[in-house]
């Protein structure tokens, strides 16, 4: 007699067709979501200008991602591809700002923000003059051959300006003014304390926490491929990584190499030949000779007392009054006061100490104004100690 087995009729053993349908619905919804995600990435890629080889690479990445739909590793791969496309689609491959080539206007901008520095201002005006002549030659039908040569070479590859001088003498601020006079975006990359060349170069996508380097990040923020990039304090990089960082700087600053700059994350050459690089340092110690050879060194000497007074009258005092919300006639200085506040703590090559001094005087006058202790304040030798900040 054949054996019989009891049949489990409990709820757990009951086959529920609706549960199977629910699972199928979840899977179907997941696949639809993944299809929508993929279409969005394809749409982003189609409406963005990219170099042909890079666009082909991105399309192959999307094809590979499409074949992974429904698999366990899809989400991780999607995040990687989506992040990469976000970067390459937001870089200024063909976007540039229009240079301001009016030399008189550029001179006014330079003079309005910085006193003296005639050699530096003349160097910038020379650069503008060459750019202007190049563009005119390219448009002139009578000089077609010259225009073709300029087009072949690209924009004039100016040597990197390298400002060397003591702290506080305006190396960073003059770089910003140069960008303003050229009508270009400004990017500052702080090199002080940098301990890894990958901060500049970027990291390969093989690493989970990979990201582009500071150069590519700056270009994305600027939105143009011809900004002014300041490499600030290149003499203060960490000693342990100095050799590697100098190697990256060598490629950045060499016109024969930077037209195909390779960031490890982007993994495709980016043309930096239209970028105007500016570097700054307190001294040249620790900077590789090969890097120095690719820069035009400009020494920025410290300011004399009469120069500091001129800067204080024309630039520092008006700026501090504006920042404090005071009208220009609220505070005035008698002429003989200026020498006594030029160097209250001894010699300073720059103007930061004097700027702090003027800021302290303005603060004390502002307090008196708010407390109703006066409407206008004249700073004289008799009352200067009342206003000088106490350190």
From TrEMBL:
InterPro entries: AAA+_ATPase, ATPase_AAA_core, Lon_lid, Lon_Prtase, P-loop_NTPase
One record GO biological process: protein quality control for misfolded or incompletely synthesized proteins
SUPFAM superfamilies hit by this protein: P-loop containing nucleoside triphosphate hydrolases
Pfam families hit by this protein: AAA, Lon_lid
Keywords: Hydrolase, Protease
One function term, GO molecular function aspect: ATP binding
Signal peptide range in chain numbering: none
Domain AAA+ ATPase: from-to ranges: 157-305
Name of the featured protein: Lon protease
Source organism per UniProt: candidate division CPR1 bacterium GW2011_GWA2_42_17
């Amino acid at each position: 007699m054949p054996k019989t087995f009891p049949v489990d009729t409990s709820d757990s053993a009951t086959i529920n067709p609706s549960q199977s349908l629910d699972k199928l619905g979840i899977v179907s919804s997941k696949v639809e979501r993944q299809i929508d995600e993929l279409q969005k990435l394809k749409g982003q890629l189609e409406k963005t200008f990219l170099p042909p080889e890079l666009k082909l690479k991105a399309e192959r990445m999307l094809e590979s991602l499409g074949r992974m739909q429904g698999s366990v590793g899809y989400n991780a791969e999607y995040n990687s591809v989506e992040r990469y496309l976000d970067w390459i689609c937001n870089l200024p491959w063909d976007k540039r700002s229009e240079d301001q080539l009016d030399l008189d206007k550029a001179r006014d901008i330079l003079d309005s923000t910085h006193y003296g520095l005639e050699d530096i201002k003349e160097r910038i005006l020379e650069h503008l003059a060459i750019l202007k002549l190049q563009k005119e030659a390219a448009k002139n039908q009578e000089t077609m051959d010259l225009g073709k040569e300029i087009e072949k070479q690209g924009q004039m590859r100016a040597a990197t300006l390298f400002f060397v001088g003591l702290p506080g003498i305006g190396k960073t601020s003059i770089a910003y003014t140069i960008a303003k006079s050229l009508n270009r975006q400004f990017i500052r990359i702080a090199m002080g304390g940098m301990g890894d060349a990958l901060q500049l170069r970027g990291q390969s996508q093989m690493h989970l926490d990979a990201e582009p380097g500071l150069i590519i990040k700056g270009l994305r923020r600027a939105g143009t491929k011809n900004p002014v990039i300041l490499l600030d304090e290149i003499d203060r990089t960490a000693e342990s990584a100095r050799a590697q960082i100098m190697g990256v700087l060598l490629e950045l600053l060499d016109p024969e190499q930077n037209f195909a700059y390779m960031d490890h994350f982007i993994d495709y050459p980016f043309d930096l030949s239209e970028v105007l690089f500016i570097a700054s340092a307190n001294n040249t110690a620790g900077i590789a000779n090969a890097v120095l050879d690719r820069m035009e060194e400009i020494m920025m000497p410290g300011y004399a007392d009469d120069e500091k007074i001129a800067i204080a009258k024309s630039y520092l005092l008006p700026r501090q009054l504006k920042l404090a919300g005071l009208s220009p006639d609220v505070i005035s200085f008698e002429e003989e006061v200026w020498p006594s506040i030029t160097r209250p703590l001894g010699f300073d090559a720059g103007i930061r100490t004097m700027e702090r001094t003027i800021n302290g005087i303005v603060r004390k006058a502002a307090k008196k104004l708010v407390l109703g202790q006066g409407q206008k304040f004249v700073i004289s030798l008799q009352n200067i100690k009342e206003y000088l900040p106490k350190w």
